[in-house]
């Protein structure tokens, strides 16, 4: 089961290949520990597969941070200064670590949406 993510670029209608992403474990006091950094592959996914394997996923809170501005700038999109979206941070909780948690992101330079996928 474990934890995974997938990012789709809704401006261009394609996976967000090349977007930088970080995964953090968060705490009630606001502190966060970096678990990993990676760049999305041609399918808009972590090239290593799961972000956290089934047997390592724990109850707790996490944050995925997506470098939206860097991604769209690299694609040649002219963004205003300051741009509307820079880093998109998604804070979410894992209550049942024996289930799969999939956190997709649909994103453009001006909007984003997410949900718990399957």
Describe the structure in your own words:
The protein is mostly beta strands. The protein has one domain: Transthyretin/hydroxyisourate hydrolase domain (Immunoglobulin-like). The chain is built from one helix and eight strands, in the order βββββαβββ. Strand 1 and strand 2 form a beta hairpin.
Provide the fold topology:
Blueprint: E1 3-9, E2 14-15, E3 20-26, E4 32-39, E5 60-67, H1 68-74, E6 87-94, E7 101-107, E8 112-114
Parallel strand pairs: 1-7
Antiparallel strand pairs: 1-2, 3-4, 3-5, 5-6, 7-8
Question: How would you summarize what this structure contains?
Answer:
The protein has one helix at about 70-75, and strands at about 5-10, 15, 20-25, 30-40, 60-65, 85-95, 100-105, 110-115. It has about 120 residues and is mainly β.
Question: Which stretches are poorly predicted, pLDDT < 50 over at least 5 residues?
Answer: none
CATH level-two architecture: Sandwich
Considering the protein shown, what is the CATH homologous superfamily?
A: Transthyretin/hydroxyisourate hydrolase domain
Multimeric status of the protein: single chain
Strand arrangement, largest sheet? 2-1-7-8
First-last Cα distance: 10 Å
Quickly give the structural class. Answer: mainly beta
Average pLDDT score: 96
- Biggest sheet character: 4 strands, mixed
| The level-1 CATH class | Mainly Beta
Query: What is the H-and-E element order?
Result: EEEEEHEEE
